[in-house]
Amino acid sequence: MILKTFIEPPIGNNNYLIIDEESKEAALIDYSTVDKDIENAVKENGAKLKYILLTHGHFDHVAGIRPNAGLAALPAEENTPHVQIVMHKADLGWLKKVNQFMPMFGMPEMTIPTVDVFVNDNDILKLGNLEIKVIHTPGHTQGGVCYLVDGKLFSGDTIFRESVGRCDLEGGDFDQIVESIENKIFTLPPETLIYPGHGKMTSVEWEKEHNRFM
Predict the structure, then answer these.
(1) How does pLDDT run across 36-94, given as a tens digit for each residue?
(2) Degrees to nearest 5, angle at CA 190 with 167 and 149
(3) Among 33, 34, 83, 38, which Cα is nearest to 60's?
(4) 3-state DSSP call for residue 95?
(5) Considering the entire predicted model, what is its pTM?
(6) Which of 20, 21, 33, 143 makes an SS bond possible with 90, Cβ 3.0 to 4.6 Å?
(7) Domains of the chain, with CATH numbers?
């Protein structure tokens, strides 16, 4: 698996591009802003973008999905399906109101994208020879999910290095996020690497020992 990380404005979001090396099918996990570097990475690896996988619906994780720009506008080859936008249905409300928040960060409003696939806990998405497991981890938002692939957990804003996602916004619940981490993340193998929505990479083993919120 090829993995590339892009740190994006407005607040240092991590966007992750994963590519199955054999099939060249690709997925982008969160899409914070239109970035030519991401588009170029897809093209330079000869990849075909299959999914934009959203960890949750907050504006800073979805603002790059613009119908006439960026990856959402990549021309599909003949008989090739368009890029599928994937998220948990419980966060659809957040997606629909992103334009309430964009001007606060100097970002232009966007056309609300259509979600193609609503995922649930334990769903499996195929990316070439890779399997992407969906893990529903409510607490930061009600529709927050993590994506587990090839021993790597892309955790969005559920867990960070020695921290957890904020729970003071609509739909947030601290007890729920602790339960999600304890029952869904800390039960994974300790060597599982965690790639969060902000900040540095960590691991299940490290967080079980050092996360001060757990």
Answers:
(1) 999 999 999 999 999 999 999 999 999 999 876 678 766 555 555 688 999 999 999 99
(2) 75
(3) 33
(4) helix
(5) 0.95
(6) 143
(7) 2-210 (3.60.15.10)
